[in-house]
Each structure stands twice: as structure tokens, then as C-alpha cells.
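Pilot study result, target chain (176 residues):
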Amino acid sequence: MFLRRFARPSSLMMMAKVKETTGIVGLEVVPNAREVLIDLYNKTLTEIQRVPEDEGYRKAVESFTRHRLSVCEQEEDWESIEKKLGCGQVEELIEEARDELKLIDKMIEWDPWGVPDDYECEVVENDAPVPKHVPLHRPGPLPEEFYKTLEAVMGGKLDGAPKKDEPVIPATSLST
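Predicted structure:
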């Protein structure tokens, strides 16, 4: 009764949208999450400009950041943002955005796209000796059944008999 007489409807709406907990240990509720996200996404779009324009990393970051920013600008409350993005809670999105800003700095430092044009990569073919600094990642042999099946498929020797757990359907029921 008190709330109906003295509180405005808009303030009632705001009271209903208050998040009390994230339900994730160590992740506190951010009351102004929308504003924080908008700020972080704008910073990300500014920082990613330092990465060369044609790099896939930059294109990917710009794409998903623009999308998330537009959702945050269109929606007013955290519930709508979480629902529309479908990528977790706004507090988690804030953590991801902060991590992305740190990663951009690391990527600039590492310069993975700065491979010289005259760089030659050593190619190891088949049974050529592998240098000692290269780990050996050779898969184990495939089961004998694989080779038998492959041979049967390649030779057209597979019969039309039903498999062990496959239901038998009479030919007359297929034509009706």
C-alpha cells in the first residue's frame, strides 16, 4: 500500500530489476553494468585500431564488440542485455571486456602478424628426420577394423545386410 501511494511506477520498475547476486563466487554485482560495458566496448574499439586493418583478430574483435555495444546501447536493463547477447551475466561480460583489452596490448607486444616476407619455414615431409627441437606428434595405429571397413567401402564389397542394432524394414512398407 505504501509503495502504491508514494512510489512512482518507474521507481517500482527499477526496484524489481535490482540484482542481488551473480551466484558466482568472487564475482560481485556491478550496479551500473550497462554503463561500464559501454565504456569498455568503446575503449576496445579504440584500442583495436592499433592492430593492422587486414588481420583476422582485429576483424573478429571489432565485429563482436560492435554487436555487443549496440545491444548495450539499445537495451536499458541488465536482464535484457544478458538475454539478447546470450553470453552470460553482465558481470562476466565486464570481465571478458577487461581481458580483451589486456589481450590487445599483448597482441601488439607479440606482433604475430609481423612475419617478414622473406621468412622461410622449414617443411618436414613424410619420413624426413625431424629436428630435435620439434616434438613428435605421430598418432598411434588405427584399429584393424578401420582398414577392413575402408577396404570394403573402396572395393564395393559391403553387403546389404542390416547392422546389429538396425531395425529391419520390409521393402513393401517403403513403397507405400
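One observation from the pilot: The radius of gyration is 29 Å. A full batch analysis is planned for the follow-on phase.
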